[in-house]
Amino acid sequence: MTSTAAADLIFGLTRVVGLPALTEAAGAPLSAEDIAQIVTEADRFCTEVLMPGAQAADRAGAVYANGVVTTPYRETYAKWIEGGWQSLAAPAEHGGQGLPASLWTAMTELGMAADTSFMLGPLLTAGAIDCLTHHATPEQAARWLPRMVSGEWTGAMCLTEPHAGSDLGVLRTRAEPLGNGRYALTGQKIFITWGEHDCTENIVYLVLARLPDAPPGSKGISLFACTKVKEDGSRNAIRCGGIERKMGIHASPTCIMLFEGAEAEMVGEPHRGLPAMFAMMNNARLGVGTQGVAHGAAALRLAEAYAAQRIQGGRPIAEHPDVARMLMEMRSITLAARLLALETALCVDRHALLGDAAAQNRLALLTPILKAWCTDRGVETASTGIQVHGGMGFVEDAGAAQVLRDARIAPIYEGTNGIQAIDLLVRKVAKDGGAEMRALLAEVGRSPDARLRAAAEAFGAVTGRMLEVQGRDAEAAQSVAVAYLDAAGWLLGGWMLARAAAEDPSAHGATAEFYLRRLLPRAAARAAEIEGALAA
Amino acid sequence: MTSTAAADLIFGLTRVVGLPALTEAAGAPLSAEDIAQIVTEADRFCTEVLMPGAQAADRAGAVYANGVVTTPYRETYAKWIEGGWQSLAAPAEHGGQGLPASLWTAMTELGMAADTSFMLGPLLTAGAIDCLTHHATPEQAARWLPRMVSGEWTGAMCLTEPHAGSDLGVLRTRAEPLGNGRYALTGQKIFITWGEHDCTENIVYLVLARLPDAPPGSKGISLFACTKVKEDGSRNAIRCGGIERKMGIHASPTCIMLFEGAEAEMVGEPHRGLPAMFAMMNNARLGVGTQGVAHGAAALRLAEAYAAQRIQGGRPIAEHPDVARMLMEMRSITLAARLLALETALCVDRHALLGDAAAQNRLALLTPILKAWCTDRGVETASTGIQVHGGMGFVEDAGAAQVLRDARIAPIYEGTNGIQAIDLLVRKVAKDGGAEMRALLAEVGRSPDARLRAAAEAFGAVTGRMLEVQGRDAEAAQSVAVAYLDAAGWLLGGWMLARAAAEDPSAHGATAEFYLRRLLPRAAARAAEIEGALAA
To answer: Which of A313, A528, A533 sits opposite B167 (nearest CB)?
Structure first.
């Protein structure tokens, strides 16, 4: 049986964002049936293989001892490889199936909803594959990518250092040339997701470091790749120094990685590591935004099941007006976020399959909104899910608490949501004088729903105000950037739901109507907050 | 050194809500200096005795084995008794200091902010003392209360059963008369905070149960008291069947309690147990609302310390515009909530010390708002505190994650926030046709701040709308009750801050202005949500 989430993903891909038409235009048609079959298979894998062990995995956690990390995932990961899921959207020339990024987004949502800690491994590997596909030489790619695409090796991204988080420009890891075209990396990286584990024989590390002649700051950072096990079969000088004790994602090892003269190769040009990493990060941010959707979906699944069977006052609590309200909030927010993630992923596909430059601009605009708005909503929805459970929500056995604990990291990593808001304001909206945002708002403004049209117009005015303030007082503008991004998210969520309702009024009309009546006003509320803050 | 929280509590008690004037009118004057001294001593105890062990206590947790519960608090609790803190606001006739409830509220905030798991024990004991003070016979009171007031025995409230949570009317625990004026209790109670522990020799249980001749439903519930150790020194037939594994408050044992023919006495009249318990619950809800304040205060303390020393982009992150915004949100919300808790607590004192019936009505109105709005804000502020920390916020060592994990229960227990919203709408506002709410809004409407006056007027209109809808479609009204309560909270928070700013513009003017500009619009946003939901 297909889950509600999977059914909605199929509906979204085929009837809202138009994946069949896009693939047909690109000459590699995927029918609605093809899409349904792939998503249904992904759903089955996630429901049957990942979901059953997720709670026990959280309880056991990843365990560190003497440089060795043990996870609860050895068998699960073997099934991941066996299913070939890592290859889904990977390039065909390296052994991938070359399917659209939007299908990988669907897989990401289903996997993250089933077991976030597990799915982080494949997500990071996908990011590393993406980075190497764009920046490695053909010779490098041939050595690493086939085994990453098969899932035989995983990938890990090594950026953060203790003193260099949001500000990567100050990182200190050194890369000394060894004379043979290779480099010795020395330094400490922290917060390395799946940096060490027991699921594969080898791990490919992508590491930001400085060459000896590097200029200071972000323009002196280069990108390197190295492997845990070297080509001659010996261990590289890379060691896990410990793992973090965290609020959630307990079974995903968050590692301190020590590079102690590790043998590495440069990837791409010297001093061009940060742009290479940022290009990759856009896709990673799409993945993290999708985690927000997944946490909403996981919370909703548990809350609906609990509310249907818990009787108080002579009827299931799902029928109590305030619990019904909470469930409708969870449903409408999760569907809105899901469709927004698919809309964003389709920009990746439109650019990749049709070379559509406009899609690239749209993607750049939507990415920070997706990342921040969906992950904030994931936390909010997970918390609402706990509330639906009453006292049981706080007890770990029910699973609802784990969803919130796992969800809480998503607004932080891959660039905090505050960083996303500044990215949206400065590097996206202000950069082109608001042109791409206005183009998007013009589309929303063509909605047949008057409330959406009015909200789009009001948000256009807010955008003008933000541009004006950003031009004369950047710090003032940045102090309301989060509110601005949030308003954009509420507006676009409503737009996606209105489109879904237009396609299938009987399935999604009530959900959209709930949102447009009760949640769309949050866009105006955020605008009022901005206006209040900027008032002289 | 006095903490910021303690300084603000002293300021609030002495200059905003007017405790010195009230105590003088009551003929038992407490000067501003007296109040400052008591709060400063409480602050010292919490900072020096409770706070240092809170993180280790969370990590160790309460441990259950064979009916025995071990906590990390044996030594800490001994210091609690030694300091005489339990007696602070307890009645003088039972050995208490008889100080105002508003001072106990200050102690509650400081203790909960220092170590929530610990402070829950004293808070539940205070609730039991309150209940017995009002409902026990003098003879019963003399046997139990002095040892509870000293802290030598703790109290536990036994209400919830597996199938009876928000709906206590269906509870099944039986009370069989033993013929000697005593009763044998048989049944299972769950979610019993500090139901079993190793800090005291004895525990007094207040238990809701049914007499054999009890009518069905909530009118057939009586209140009983029994002790873990009977007067002859033998163990009563009360057993802890296990403790819950929870998201937070790990060191507070949440017990399954089995009454297996436990010898008990009735407290109050037969079948009148629920009203007795609900009267006590109003005070307990004040205590839980204060927990929300405490979680905001704890989150703020950690976030301010981290943001001051964490350097990114060449300056402390506290100076980054969006981090500065988060800190201001945390400060203004926490201060607003703190003052609202004191305002509510002062109603308790006005009623108790002056016999002021109007204060009783005001207390009834404010209690659900305080409980729900402050605990929602506690969760929100704790989450913002994590965000200020970036990646470190998700790592347990930083402490910020524990604040959120501990805070998340407060919107659930002592009546979920959904129940509070219905209580506000149905049993408070609709009950008197909105009279008390209008009286409160008239006070807010006399504020010199035009934004507050406008917000009070708008909320008055929303109140009229809610009353109208409640009269003809109670389920529709209840589906927006949470939004209505939340709007009330944002309005009253602004009112408290405006009063603080008027008293001391240099200390609190900027905080109030931030709130009035940026957060007060949330009241209007909730009104828009209600309007949207109720639109035909």
So the answer is: A313
Q: Which residues, listed in sequence order, are joined to residue A158 by a DSSP beta bridge?
A: A207
- Flag whether B486 is in a domain: yes
Q: Which of B210, B244, B271 is the last residue of a domain?
A: B271
Final residue before a domain boundary, out of A221, A236, A271: A271
For chain A, what is the domain count? Answer: 2
Residues of A in contact with B320 (CB under 8 A): 418, 478
| A162 within a domain of the structure (yes/no) | yes
**Residue A244 belongs to a domain with what CATH number?**
2.40.110.20
CA–CA distances in Å: residue A504 to residues A15, A327, B484: 9, 20, 32
Q: Does A517 touch chain B (CB under 8 A)?
A: yes
| Torsion over CA: A131, A200, A57, B72 (sign) | negative
CB contact under 8 A, A390 and B422: no
Contacts of A163 in chain B (CB under 8 A): 311
Distance, in angstroms, between A405 CA and closest chain B CA?
A: 8
Give the DSSP H/E element, type plus range, for residue B158: strand B153-158
Question: In the Cβ-directed half-sphere of A225, how many Cα atoms lie within 13 Å?
Answer: 23
Rounded to an integer, what distance in angstroms lies between the CA atom of residue B15 and that of residue B32? 9
CA nearest B331: which of B54, B78, B8, B100? B8
Query: Residue B438: which domain range?
Result: 417-534
Tell which residue, B74, B118, B65, B414, has the closest CA to residue B240: B65
Structure token pair of residue B318:
């506290």
Joined tokens for residue A34: 């093809």
Q: What is the pLDDT of residues A205-223, one digit of tens each?
A: 999 999 999 999 999 999 9
Please judge whether B418 and A322 are an interchain contact, meaning their C-beta atoms are less than 8 angstroms apart. yes
Chain B positions in Cβ-Cβ contact with residue A160 (cut-off 8 Å): 391
* Beta-bridge mates of residue B530: none
- Answer whether residue A320 is part of any domain: no
* Contacting residues for B213 by C-beta, under 8 A, at least 6 apart: none
Q: Please pick, among B414, B443, B468, B503, the residue that the annotation labels catalytic.
A: B414
**pLDDT tens digits, chain B, 536 residues: what are they?**
799 999 999 999 999 999 999 999 999 999 999 999 999 999 999 999 999 999 999 999 999 999 999 999 999 999 999 999 999 999 999 999 999 999 999 999 999 999 999 999 999 999 999 999 999 999 999 999 999 999 999 999 999 999 998 888 899 999 999 999 999 999 999 999 999 999 999 999 999 999 999 999 999 999 999 999 999 999 999 999 999 999 999 999 999 999 999 999 999 999 999 988 887 788 899 999 999 999 999 999 999 999 999 999 999 999 999 999 999 999 999 999 999 999 999 999 999 999 999 999 999 999 999 999 999 999 999 999 999 999 999 999 999 999 999 999 999 999 999 999 999 999 999 999 999 999 999 999 999 999 999 999 999 999 999 999 999 999 999 999 999 999 999 999 999 999 999 999 999 999 999 999 999 999 999 999 999 999 86
Tokens representing B399 are 């402490």
Contact yes or no for B394 and A248 at CB 8 A: yes
Q: What ipTM goes with this model?
A: 0.97
And the tokens for A434? Answer: 């608001």
Q: How far apart are CA B121 and CA B104, in angstroms?
A: 14
Indicate the pTM of the whole model. 0.98
Taking only residues 464 to 483 of chain B, the set having a beta carbon closer than 8 angstroms to any beta carbon of chain A reads 475-476, 478-482
Question: Using CB atoms and an 8 Å cut-off, which of residues 300-319 of chain B contact chain A?
Answer: 311-313
Chain A residues whose CB is inside 8 A of the B476 CB are: 321
Residue of B nearest to A530 (CA): B518
Suggest the residue from B312, B325, B394 to mutate for an interface test with chain A (most A CBs closer than 10 A). Answer: B394
DSSP for B84-111, please give it: TGGGTTS-GGGT-----HHHHHHHHHHH
